């Protein structure tokens, strides 16, 4: 109990008053260690406020590296960012190899130059500064630059630096994992899988970043196809276990969207953004606002995404999605989709969105010309579905049939292909696909009811 602990501390300090000065110093040091261990225990119990009180009771000059790290984490959790930055900076002044501190400072908005300036500059025995002796290729400084790029959403720049570091350290598991993580974020899934597998071949027990959804989120995704309510329960459980678990908020947001609760989805995506803004949280937030018909808020969120990632085709495409949702601003949507394709010519999602815009406005030949460019190198079922829809609209039913069948061969569970094929078969039989189906059983039941009456 806190009262007993405080009494114990008093007796510790009292018993040492008659001791030598060195014993007094030892007792003070021990008391700080006790506070640190109490704070660590509070952290395990998720009692952040109590842990912070204990840690703030340790004088700044008495804090060692572990203490500064823990205090930095606590300040981040309680959103005292300036205090967190000060703690992490103290960590790097002690030792430049504290990667947790480097990552945290980058995420808190510090520049690479500011972080590198913290590294100790004590001359070595050779007379050269430590920064010159770290490595001839300045690998640590490049490492800092990579994390600052990623923290500012410049994933391409970060990936370039990490790839450079990987050439310097080809079998380094840590760098392999960082490269794979960034590749997964920007949609290079095949490359990400290859690098994750390479990391596993070096260390078969590593699962870092490969289990990002973790148990609760994985269960949530599993149950999404069976029971939305149970899926949502698991997503919420992941947040209860770790209130800073970004994937939990994102999965929760998309589940709320799927169950037609866009207002609650906005709160979930906002929670993810406060912790770590990224592509998924921005996309979810925009879709939630569109579901609420809040075009102004959706456009504001999409533009914030473009500011955060000015060279991102996905961010540019998201602004186009907002404009495309309103018939009066489709010309603006077209410009943004075309801009996204200039930034990333192979960006299929932007091509599909632009083709849909062409189809809606009757430019069917333009849609077919655009989509046909991707057929050679793409094996995506959604491309075949979109081609089938355009061909069906153009009344080229045999071509539409061929593409629906191709889509289902690639993905037998594609619901859009199933529904499109069912509709197309009615058209090919000369039936109206929009006509309501006659239900013979209901007619019989109605007749029986009339006889009873």
Automatic annotation (TrEMBL):
<dbReference type="GO" id="GO:0016567">
    <property type="term" value="P:protein ubiquitination"/>
</dbReference>
<feature type="compositionally biased region" description="Basic and acidic residues">
    <location>
        <begin position="416"/>
        <end position="432"/>
    </location>
</feature>
<feature type="region of interest" description="Disordered">
    <location>
        <begin position="1"/>
        <end position="26"/>
    </location>
</feature>
<dbReference type="GO" id="GO:0005680">
    <property type="term" value="C:anaphase-promoting complex"/>
</dbReference>
<dbReference type="Pfam" id="PF13181">
    <property type="entry name" value="TPR_8"/>
</dbReference>
<dbReference type="Pfam" id="PF14559">
    <property type="entry name" value="TPR_19"/>
</dbReference>
<dbReference type="InterPro" id="IPR011990">
    <property type="entry name" value="TPR-like_helical_dom_sf"/>
</dbReference>
<dbReference type="InterPro" id="IPR019734">
    <property type="entry name" value="TPR_rpt"/>
</dbReference>
<dbReference type="GO" id="GO:0051301">
    <property type="term" value="P:cell division"/>
</dbReference>
<feature type="repeat" description="TPR">
    <location>
        <begin position="381"/>
        <end position="414"/>
    </location>
</feature>
<feature type="compositionally biased region" description="Acidic residues">
    <location>
        <begin position="434"/>
        <end position="453"/>
    </location>
</feature>
<keyword id="KW-0802">TPR repeat</keyword>
<feature type="region of interest" description="Disordered">
    <location>
        <begin position="415"/>
        <end position="453"/>
    </location>
</feature>
<protein>
    <recommendedName>
        <fullName>Anaphase-promoting complex subunit 7</fullName>
    </recommendedName>
</protein>
<dbReference type="GO" id="GO:0045842">
    <property type="term" value="P:positive regulation of mitotic metaphase/anaphase transition"/>
</dbReference>
């Amino acid at each position: 109990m806190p009262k007993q602990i405080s009494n114990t501390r008093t007796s510790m300090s009292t018993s040492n008053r008659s001791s030598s000065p060195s014993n007094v110093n030892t007792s003070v040091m021990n008391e700080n260690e006790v506070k640190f261990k109490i704070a660590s225990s509070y952290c395990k119990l998720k009692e952040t406020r109590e842990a912070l009180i204990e840690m703030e009771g340790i004088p700044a000059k008495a804090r060692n590296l572990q203490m500064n790290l823990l205090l930095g984490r606590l300040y981040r959790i309680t959103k005292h960012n300036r205090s967190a930055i000060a703690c992490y900076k103290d960590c790097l002044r002690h030792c430049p190899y504290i990667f947790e501190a480097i990552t945290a400072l980058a995420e808190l908005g510090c520049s690479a130059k500011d972080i590198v300036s913290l590294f100790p500059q004590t001359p070595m025995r050779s007379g050269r500064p430590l920064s010159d002796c770290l490595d001839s290729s300045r690998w640590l400084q490049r490492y800092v630059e990579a994390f600052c790029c990623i923290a500012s959403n410049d994933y391409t720049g970060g990936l370039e630096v990490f790839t450079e570091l990987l050439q310097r350290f080809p079998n380094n598991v840590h760098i392999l994992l960082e490269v794979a993580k960034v590749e997964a974020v920007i949609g290079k899934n095949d490359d990400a899988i290859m690098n994750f597998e390479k990391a596993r071949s070096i260390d078969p027990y590593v699962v870092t970043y490969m289990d990002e959804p973790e148990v609760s989120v994985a269960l949530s995704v599993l149950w999404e196809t069976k029971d939305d309510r149970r899926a949502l329960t698991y997503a919420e459980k992941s947040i209860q276990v770790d209130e800073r678990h970004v994937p939990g908020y994102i999965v929760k947001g998309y589940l709320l969207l799927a169950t037609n609760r866009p207002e609650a989805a906005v709160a979930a995506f906002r929670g993810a953004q406060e912790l770590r803004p990224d592509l998924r949280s921005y996309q979810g937030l925009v879709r939630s606002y569109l579901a609420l018909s809040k075009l102004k808020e959706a456009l504001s969120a999409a533009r914030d995404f473009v500011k955060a990632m000015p060279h991102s085709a996905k961010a540019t495409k998201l602004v186009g999605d907002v404009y495309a949702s309103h018939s009066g601003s489709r010309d603006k949507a077209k410009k943004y989709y075309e801009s996204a394709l200039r930034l990333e010519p192979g960006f299929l999602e932007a091509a599909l969105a632009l083709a849909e815009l062409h189809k809606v406005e009757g430019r069917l030949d333009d849609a077919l010309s655009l989509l046909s460019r991707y057929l050679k190198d793409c094996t995506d079922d959604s491309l075949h579905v979109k081609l089938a829809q355009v061909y069906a609209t153009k009344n080229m039913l045999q071509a539409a049939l061929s593409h629906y069948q191709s889509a289902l061969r690639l993905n037998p569970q594609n619901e859009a292909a199933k529904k499109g094929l069912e509709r197309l078969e009615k058209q090919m039989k000369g039936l109206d696909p929009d006509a309501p189906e006659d239900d013979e059983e209901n007619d019989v039941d109605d007749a029986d009811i009339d006889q009873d009456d």
